Every structure is written in structure tokens, then in C-alpha cells.
Amino acid sequence: MRCSPGSVLNLLRSGRMRFCSRRGKSRLPLWLRKIWAYMRLLVQSLCFNTLTDSDVVFDSIFEPVFWTVDYVTRWFGLVFVCLVVILTSSILVIAYIVLLPLVLNTYSPAWIAWHICYGHWNLIMIAFHYYKAAKTSPGYPPTEKNDRPFVSVCKKCIMPKPARTHHCGICNRCILKMDHHCPWLNNCVGHFNHRYFFSFCLFMTLGCVYCSISGRNLFLDAYSALERFKHLDLEKPGIPVTGMGLLIGLLPSGQTNFHTPAPSYTFKDRMIHKSIIYMWVLTSTVGVALGALTVWHAVLISRGETSIDRHINKKERRRLAAWGKVYRNPFNYGKLNNWKVFLGVEKRSHWVTRVLLPSGHPPYGDGLTWDIFPVRKDLIPV
């Protein structure tokens, strides 16, 4: 019997239809197929092109962890702000109720004037810059179409990003000249509130150092007093009198214990000493931690960098060093000029009116475009 090509083709078609019908009966549920397709898409996304590197793989694998941290930080921001207000207020209460009467009674008029003037100036600077840092918008790139130059497109917002603009996962939007997201402010630190953030850190550090140094002797006296109170509490309240003591009438009738005198301190004395110790420990701890952060940001400002710029510039230096080239930060105008641009100092009087006094002046530039100087020169002549 001879087989024609047509009969062979019909046989293959019938076999295929039977195989497909059997496979259709054993097909997985729709929800399970969706999960399988999503998992395949995730795996394929790790090698979507030749530009994929270890950073992309790392971000993809740890994306759930980053999302959880961002979510918790976003909702706990208000808690951190309340904690700052409560701790600062507690130090103020101790200063006004406990320390101020002590200063007025023991210090000379010159020292009293110094403590009152410096303390209130420092307090005003802390409160002003903290409020401005928390309430001032860090700056956002425009969402409408414009002719502004941009360096990349945000993969989260799908919007053009100007130079030094980065996406904040907690705020869920791009920030101009982003430094970092500060949970203690419940706000991002960007172009328009970077100066307020640094000034708050600086004056809070100065305030903590001031309290720690001026209260050192009070702390030592309070600690010694509490130790003395502790030894007094360990003494027995009375000594039992028995035997001949009762017969010769050492005690009144009906009393069997010889009572020791009442303690020489009160509950108010104990609380005053404890509050002084609390104030000194808190201000010393915060002064050391916040002082280190302030010094670090001061170094970055002197270099014309933000915290994110430092990581980017470090990678660029390594990349160009492999090619035998030297990378120069295009936003570094020189140490003095960097500080003048950052603080908004345009003339000599501004060192007082804009640095040593509360000032709400805007920063230099709009945060969208930046002046690049290949040669260091005075950006703002002072």
C-alpha cells in the first residue's frame, strides 16, 4: 500500500489534535499559571539587556526589603518628629525649672547675662531651623513638558531627571539635589531645605555641648548626692531595744525600737538630682552623635557634594582611574565658594544676617540647572 503525502499530513494533524486535547485536560489552574508567568517575568528581568550589572540584580532581589523599610519609615515619621519635640521640651523644662533658679542664686551678673543671652539665642536658632527644615519642600522637578536639560529618566516616576536629582522611595517622588530622607524631620533633605537641615544639626550640637559643659559640675554633684541618698536608704529605720534596756527606761512605755532621725533629703531633692543627670546624659549623647553627623556634612559641603553625590563621584573616580584619567567634581567651586553658595552669602553682612540670625532666604539657583566652572573662581565675590 502506497502512502501519499496528503495522508501523512492528515495523520500528523490528527495526532496533534489528540495531544492538544489531552494537554488541555491537564492544564494548570489560571491563578497558578499567572503566578508562574510572573515568576518567569521576574527571572527574565534580571537579564533583560547587556547593561545589567550586580546593582540591578541586588535591587531586584532586595526590592521587598527596601519596600518594607520605606513603608515603615513613612508611617513612623510623625513618631520621630514627636520624639524630637518631647525630648527637647524635657530639656527646656529642666533648664527653666531646675537650672535657672540655681544660676540666678549662685552666678555673678555677668555670667547670668551670658547664660540667658546665649541660651535663648541657641534655642531660637534650633526651633526656627527645625521648623523650616521639616515644613519646607525640598524641591521637585517639573511634571509638565519643558525645555530644561535633564541627564536621565527616573525608572520609578518615568519622568526626566535634572542633574543631582534622585528618587526617594519614602516620599515616592524625585527630589532636587537630594541628600537623604531624614526620619527625624519626616521630610526629604533637598535643594530648598538643605541649609535648614544643616543649621539645625549645627545649632542643636552647639546647644548640647553647651549644656554638657556648663552642667558637668552639677552632674557630678547630683550623682554624688544620689549615691549618698542610696546609702542612707540602706540604714535600718530603728534598733530593737531588749533586756536591760527596757528595765532601765531607755524608751517610753510601749515602744520597743529606737528610731533613727528622718532622712535629710526630700522627694523633691531626689527628683532634681535625677533630672540633672538625665539632662547631662541626654545632651552629651546627642552632642557626640549629632556632632559627628554635622562634621560629616560639613566636609561634604566643603567638597560641593551631597551624600548621594559622594557615592556617585566615588564610582566615577574608580571608573576613570581604570582608564588612567582623573575625575573632578563639576559642582566643586572651591571650599569658600561652596560655603557661600550653600549658605547664600552674597555680601559680608550676610554672615551675620543669614548665618548667625534666623533667615528664610532661598538657596542659590533653582535646583534644575547648575553652573559648572572648570577653573575655580569666586562664584559670589565677597
Automatic annotation (TrEMBL):
The keyword Magnesium does not apply. One of its GO terms (molecular function) is protein-cysteine S-palmitoyltransferase activity. Residues 152-311 form the Palmitoyltransferase DHHC domain. It catalyses: L-cysteinyl-[protein] + hexadecanoyl-CoA = S-hexadecanoyl-L-cysteinyl-[protein] + CoA. Pfam families: DHHC. Keywords: Acyltransferase, Membrane, Transferase, Transmembrane, Transmembrane helix. It is found in: Membrane. GO terms for cellular component: membrane. The chain crosses the membrane at residues 78-104, 111-131, 196-213, 277-299. It is an enzyme of class 2 (transferase). Its main location: membrane. Its EC number is 2.3.1.225. It is a multi-pass membrane protein. The DHHC domain is required for palmitoyltransferase activity. Belongs to the DHHC palmitoyltransferase family. PANTHER family: PALMITOYLTRANSFERASE ZDHHC16. This is Palmitoyltransferase. It comes from Poecilia mexicana. The lineage of its organism: Eukaryota, Metazoa, Chordata, Craniata, Vertebrata.
